[in-house]
Amino acid sequence: MTNANENSESIKKIRDLIKDIEYAMLTTIDSEGKLHSRPMATNREVEFNGDVWFFTYASSLKVNEINNRHEVNVSYAAPNKNSYVSLTGTAEIIRDKDKLKELWQPQLKAWFPKELDEPDIGLLKVTVEKAEYWDSPASLVANTIGLVKAIATGKSATNMGEHEKVELK
Amino acid sequence: MTNANENSESIKKIRDLIKDIEYAMLTTIDSEGKLHSRPMATNREVEFNGDVWFFTYASSLKVNEINNRHEVNVSYAAPNKNSYVSLTGTAEIIRDKDKLKELWQPQLKAWFPKELDEPDIGLLKVTVEKAEYWDSPASLVANTIGLVKAIATGKSATNMGEHEKVELK
């Protein structure tokens, strides 16, 4: 059973759980089918709306892996709050200058000394299909939020609009 | 270039990074090729030797996923220390009673109220092929330790013995 209030409450819950977490672990599949993860600086000022974005070098190994296999997992751990989040989805590289400018934050200079003038800069857009969270890991039960995009429209939605159906399982 | 001192130092480094972390995120591949992760209580008293072990219910969804696709990633996040670890490997379910007894810890009772009398209890053994760690995520460079098992012996080694070759890449 799903209703709009439950959905917005659940999205808000995920947003609250991840908003203070500086680094997520991004897991990708390599050419041999092995799973690798690495910490990625999160855009904490960007609110959770079903997609998450990370700055990256477009020629990096992980982008290469993602171009071959789109499936990724993004996990967030906040041990001090006993909260853990798993986002299941697909990733793609986006090099749109306006989007780069919109999401840029000064602290990213640590990785990109040339800032937005870096010729190899890009964004990883993760389209999230399922979000699971544990706010008490002693519980065996995950809270699951399914984000079912409106595939019929062919639109890769970037926010929770009317073309999206949110399922609470 | 590799030598025994460098290897033991690197293994010690990984062990130090993960020993205080209560929950790792275990990522598995589902039947549709999607990546899922969930927090798993770590055996902090077990030292890192190339394999990691987790208690599980043998009939759980993740065991089902692992039986179909052995590839997993185990990630550890210690935000307060700015350290992150990625272990790439394969997982299998082990139901050996002696091993269960050896690794059992009282705090696991939160998940297994019947303790070792739980009929569905099992261990996930993750055989680690590659370990990567970041002790300063502002660095773009991962430290990688390759654990190349002695495949010729057909032995699934459980500790760093003479049949194993450790590569520092």
What would your notes on this structure say?
With 169 residues, chain A is α+β, with helices and mostly antiparallel strands. Chain A contains 3 helices and 8 strands; from the N terminus they run αβββαββαβββ. In chain A, strands 1, 2, 3, 4, 5, 6, 7 and 8 form an 8-stranded antiparallel beta sheet that branches. The longest helix of chain A has 15 residues, at 4-18. The N and C termini of chain A lie close together (8 Å). Chain A binds chain B through residues 21-23, 25, 27, 29, 33-39, 41, 71-73, 75, 77-80, 84, 86, 88, 110-111, 129-130, 132, 134, 137-138, 140, 142, and chain B through 21-23, 25, 27, 29, 33-39, 41, 71-73, 75, 77-80, 84, 86, 88, 110-111, 129-130, 132, 134, 137-138, 140, 142.
Descriptive terms for the model:
eight-stranded antiparallel β-sheet, 169 residues, alpha+beta, disordered C terminus
Helix content of chain A: 10-25%
Oligomeric state of the chains in view: homodimer
Spans of chain A of at least 5 consecutive residues whose pLDDT stays below 50 are 149-169
SS strand fraction of chain A:
35-45%
What is the CA-based Rg of chain A, rounded?
16 Å
**How many beta-strand segments of chain A?**
8
Describe the SSE topology.
The structure is a homodimer of 169-residue chains.
Chain A: H1 4-18, E1 23-29, E2 35-41, E3 51-57, H2 61-68, E4 71-78, E5 83-94, H3 97-103, E6 121-134, E7 143-148, E8 165-168
Antiparallel strand pairs in A: 1-2, 1-4, 3-6, 4-5, 5-6, 6-7, 7-8
